[in-house]
Amino acid sequence: MIVRLGQKQPDWGIHLHCGSEFLSLLDTPNRPANVILYAHAPIFDLLRTVDVMITHGGLGTLKECFEFEVPMVVCPCKWDQFGNAARVKTLGIGVSLPVRRVTVDKLESACHSLMHSDHTTAFRTAKANDTTSLSVAAAVDQLQAWAKPVAT
């Protein structure tokens, strides 16, 4: 489906992390030049440059997109991904397209919509209301406080 999206939108640069087991299946002569395949994607480098992330909705990827303020198209298929997709939608930092209902046209429309919307305010509001994360300095302070010996 992602490869077909690349065929439909030749001006979009599409970076697809497909894992080593699927790399040879997708790397065919029919693959458009704008679809770049990765066995292991350099996620942090990519998040600095991409406009939208299409993801299954794993917590790690959501946290990384949240940090880099990259809006998401979440296509959940199992476990916690459905709840994560709902959170992304509720926070206004992306959309949810259940994997069983996704089509190339729906994916294209969702990406286009996110690329032409400003999500800066939604990300900043969500970050301001995020009471669960600590800055690195605060985390170090917390760990040092816990590590102090207790006087007897």
Helical run tally: 8
| Overall mean confidence score, pLDDT | 88
- The proportion of strand residues reads 5-15%
Determine Rg (CA atoms, Å). Answer: 18 Å
Number of strands: 5
In this structure, how is the largest beta sheet organized? 3 strands, parallel
**Whole-Å distance between the termini?**
64 Å
What is the CATH homology-level superfamily of the domain at 42-147? Glycogen Phosphorylase B
Sheet/helix structural class: mainly alpha
Broad shape: globular
Low-confidence parts: none
> What do we call the CATH topology of the domain at 42-147?
Rossmann fold
CATH architecture of the domain at 42-147: 3-Layer(aba) Sandwich
List descriptors.
single chain, about 150 residues, mainly alpha, three-stranded parallel beta sheet, two-stranded parallel sheet, 5 strands, about 50% helix, about 10% strand
Blueprint of the fold:
Blueprint: H1 2-8, E1 14-17, H2 19-26, E2 35-38, H3 43-47, E3 53-55, H4 59-68, E4 72-74, H5 81-91, E5 94-96, H6 104-115, H7 120-128, H8 136-147
Parallel strand pairs: 1-2, 3-4, 4-5
Describe the structure in your own words.
It is a single chain. With 152 residues, the chain is mainly alpha-helical. It has a domain at 42-147: Rossmann fold. It has helices spanning 2-8, 19-26, 43-47, 59-68, 81-91, 104-115, 120-128, 136-147, and strands at residues 14-17, 35-38, 53-55, 72-74, 94-96. The mean pLDDT is 88.
Quick overview:
With 152 residues, the protein is mainly α. The chain contains 8 helices and 5 strands.
